[in-house]
Every structure is written in structure tokens, then in C-alpha cells.
Amino acid sequence: DLEHNKVYDPEIHWNALTDGKMKYIYFASGREQLFDIVGDPHEKLDLAQDRRFATEKKMWRNRMAKQFVDEGRGAGWVQDGVLVARRKPCLHSPHFPLGVVDCKVVSHETLPLLHMQKVVKRHSSHA
Known about the structure:
The chain is α+β, with helices and mostly antiparallel strands. A hairpin with a 2-residue loop joins strand 7 (99-101) and strand 8 (104-106). The chain has a 4-stranded antiparallel β-sheet, with helices on one face. Strands 5-6 form a two-stranded antiparallel ribbon. It has helices spanning 54-70, 111-125, and strands at residues 2-4, 14-18, 22-27, 32-36, 78-79, 82-83, 99-101, 104-106. The radius of gyration is 17 Å and the shape is globular.
């Protein structure tokens, strides 16, 4: 699981998965890339548009959608099992060194408080 948010170029905003043999990249714009990182370790030949790799690309796309669902990323990332193109930057990776709530970076000290606020808000809306 790799993730790169917008920093200096709005196009450099992507998520990627790899199994050590293939690498699938999904850009927030909806663009995809697929690389054979064993045969092409410098990622010079993008296989995403090659019809011979259509089934493999679909498998990786579905794998990423499932991962986003499993991570609880929500409808801004996956709708009806389909990856969603995103315009708004958002870090969500569990490997990001700071906490992220609703696409906003928060300190780890703030996370328990924000969680409790959500629980209270959810609970009071059912009353």
C-alpha cells in the first residue's frame, strides 16, 4: 500500500498496490498505471492501456477498491465497489505519521477526543 498526496503538482496524487511482481497505480484523477516491476524495474513501460493486461488491471482495480472499503475510507473513495476519482487532496494511509480524520491532519493526542465527539454526535442524533 503506497500513497502520495498533492504536494507540488496536482497530478501527483495517487495510491498504489504491489505484490512485488506487478504494481498498480490509481491516480486521484481516475488515471491508472500498471507495471511489471520484475521485467521493468524502472517502470518505463505502462501496461495499463495494453489490452493483453485488461483482466489483470481489472483485478488490481478491484483489489484497491476492496482495500479502501476495508480501511473505511468511505464514499469519497469507493461507491458501489467502484473507485471514485477524487479532486480534493486527502491522506488516509494508516502508515501516515500523523492522524487523519475526514481528510484533515490531526495530532495523535487529538484522535481520541475526535473519536469521542463522533460517538457522542452519532449517539445524540439517534435520541
